[in-house]
Amino acid sequence: MKQTVVALAILGIGLSVAQAQEMVVKLGSVAPLTGTISHLGKDNENGARLAVEDANAKGVTIGGKKVKFELMGEDDQADPRTGTTVAQRLVDAGVKGVVGHLNSGTTIPASRIYNQAGVPMISPSATNPTLTRQGYKAVFRTIANDVQQGGVLGKFIVGPLAAKTVAIIDDRTAYGQGLADETEKAVKAGGGKIVAREFTTDKATDFNAILTKIRGAKPDVIFFGGMDAQGGPMLRQLKQLGVEAKFVTGDGGCSPEMIKLAGDSIGANAYCSMAGLPLEKMPGGAEFLKRYKARFNADVQIYSPYAYDAATAMIKAMQTANSVEPAKYLPELKKSNFPGVTGTVAFDDLGDIKDGAITMYQFKAGTWSAM
């Protein structure tokens, strides 16, 4: 009996030592998990979660201790005020890095909170150029920015689409308006004429007034800077009004949900752009899609591969620095250079992904087809 007690005591001590040598490291993930674009927000979170689970399965050791990564998922509701509140909550919780936010309008104000706390932040989806031009040393993104994307969109509109007149609508968010502004610059530089510039909101569902006004201008192309939650209904209303102009939008509408919301109103005259390569052409795209579906029983929407690469970049930097402390692994994060799902993950001096690619898509055979 005494021997049994002693053995159990020794076993207990052994377990305690093992537990003491395991270090829990919290990473944050922030995106709209409720509301009209919650499908995109959950996609972001799933990408980061898959990266964390992969790291835990491999058994990462840092500073002589086995690390267990935990992902703290937060909902910023695509609202700037909520975004800063959530950012402060994550900082107070002691996260060592943050993947997010999704929208430029929430990411930019939240980045100030992380910068003040010295917590690295990598957005997989916020494309407004301002994000990485604030002078913050710990702010990055794994997706091309709107200067790159808007330039490609404008050239596509006046080039392959041969548009001479263009109407532009934006949702007045940092993302939508920013992308629309860059697209307008590129259209004008290419010799195109802007015959209307209208705006809506990221909560609107009725666009008849502005679309009726645009119909009178008879544009060759209508460009929308915004998300799929507005883009889908907008296409329906364009069809109802008998507008035959080609419809072009950015990455916020380049999703399966956009097609679902537009229904039979979407056709071959609908185009969208996407930062990066098509999923099937990404170096790790096919394998990522397979594992994503198996884990979450859902299709990839848009940004989850970029969220996966963002979380992976942080974890790899911690391993290289042999520390989970932001001040120590940040220099290694800046020097990131590894083959990710989306391609080579490496950042320029501003924190933007290097050589960010842009791909144009056309609606064909029920899906977005890379051109």
Automatic annotation (TrEMBL):
InterPro entries reported for this sequence: Leu-bd (IPR028081), Leu_Ile_Val-bd (IPR000709), Peripla_BP_I (IPR028082)
Keyword Membrane: no
Alphabetical keyword list: Amino-acid transport, Signal, Transport
Signal peptide feature range: 1-20
This protein's record includes keyword Signal: yes
UniProt-listed GO biological process terms: amino acid transport
Stored CDD domains: PBP1_ABC_LIVBP-like
Domain (Leucine-binding protein): residue spans on this chain: 25-362
SUPFAM superfamilies referenced in this protein's UniProt entry, alphabetically: Periplasmic binding protein-like I (SSF53822)
Highest taxon above the source species: Bacteria
Family according to the record: Belongs to the leucine-binding protein family.
PANTHER family according to UniProt: AMINO ACID BINDING PROTEIN, LEU/ILE/VAL-BINDING ABC TRANSPORTER SUBUNIT
Protein's name according to its UniProt entry: Amino acid/amide ABC transporter substrate-binding protein, HAAT family
